[in-house]
Each structure stands twice: as structure tokens, then as C-alpha cells.
Amino acid sequence: MVREINARLCDGGDDTRRQRPVRAAQDRASRARPHEVLVRHTAVGLNFLDVYHRSGLYPWAVERDLIPGSEAAGRVVAVGDGVEDVRPGDRVAYTHPLGAYATARVITADRLVLLISTQN
After folding, report:
1. Residue 119: count of CB within 10 angstroms of its CB
2. Is the pLDDT of residue 85 over 80?
3. Which class is 5-114 in CATH?
């Protein structure tokens, strides 16, 4: 079950920037398509970009509700056809595109960096 944080862009005049309530989005199932990877997040970063989006200082990347968060790390749950650099169980991290404020997400494999343990 995937849960995400969703920032709603409200319709309206000058008060639009102040009225963006954060709500838990509906659960949704995710699966990896060709060249995509399903990552279960274990850590999500909070950056100035995220604050700027919520405050209205930076334009929204979409014309509707936005799932903020521009970086995360986690474990690969599933890979789509054509993915060769990571496999289920691998630890990975990424930055961009937005959408990291979720327990899991599907992202293209070329955005991922493999995290290698330094412990012996």
C-alpha cells in the first residue's frame, strides 16, 4: 500500500499561495513498466525547493495537485523490462523529479544511483 503527501493548489485570487493544504492522498498500487523501478523509500529529503513550492515562491511543476519532494533513498522492490543496473533488494538514491514524499514510487532507472555499503 503506497501513501503519499499531496499538496493541493487551490483555485482563487491572491490567496492561492496561502491555501495549499497538505493531505494524505488515496492509496494506489504501483508497478514498474519498461525501464522503470519501484523504490520503497527509507529516507526522504526536505530541501529549499520543497519549501519554495509550498510557499508559492517557486512555480508548481504541474497544473494540478503536486507530490513534493525532490530526493529520496530506499530499496528496489521491482524492476521493469530493460532495467539492468539495479535489482530487487538493492539500496538506491535519487534526486529529481518531484514526487519523493511517498512511501514508494516508480521512477525511471536512469535517475537512480546504487548505494554500496562501506561496512565490512
Report:
1. 3
2. yes
3. alpha beta
